[in-house]
Amino acid sequence: MAPSKQWMQLVDDRLNEAYFIRVEIFLNYAFQRTGEMYEIRCPCVKCCNTTLGTRETIRTHLKVYGIIKNYTFWYHHGKVLGEPESQCEDGDDNEVENCKNEDEIREILRDFYPNHYGHTLDVDCDDSLEEEPNVEAKKFYSLLGDFEKPMYQGSKISKLSTLIKLIHIKSMGRWSNESFSMLLKMLKEELLPDEADFPNTHYGAKKVIRNLGLSYERIDACRNDCMLYWKEDTLLDSCKICGESRWKVDKRNGESKNKKGKKVASKILRYFPLKPRLQRLFMSSKTSSLMTWHHDERVNDGIMWHPADSMAWKSFDELYPSFAAEPRNVRLGLASDGFQPFRNAKTSYNSLGDAINTYLQPLIEELKKLWDIGIETFDVSTKHNFKLHASLLWTINDFPAYENLSGWSTKGKLACPCCNKDTSSIRLANCKKECFMGHRRYLPRNHKWRNDKKSFDGTEEKRLPPKKRSSIEILHQVQDLERLHLTKEPKKRIKISHDSRKDNWNKKSIFFELPY
Question: How many Cα atoms sit within 13 Å of 212 on the Cβ side?
Answer without folding.
Answer: 23
